[in-house]
Amino acid sequence: MIRRGDAVRLTRGEVEEFRQVGLDLADAKCQNDIEQEVTRWAHTLADERFDLLEKIASAMAKARGVKLPPRLTVVPSADSPQRS
Prior knowledge:
By secondary structure, the chain is mainly alpha-helical. It has 3 helices and 2 strands; from the N terminus they run ββααα. It has helices at 12-20, 31-48, 50-64, and strands at residues 2-4, 7-9. α2 crosses α3 (50-64).
């Protein structure tokens, strides 16, 4: 990737590499275009393959030497009907 200020340029090979993991950066012209596509991709993963998104986040955290927050669980609110 070549960057100049906010402008970006990707080679065909780079576009194809990103496409293999589900990112479509063929029309990316600036950093914001890349951020929007990565956001779309992460939301799709969260909806369709949350387990895969967790693995990716874990690997990224490990590479950076940081800990992920604990998993969140859904707790019924005080307004929801209680099951007996």
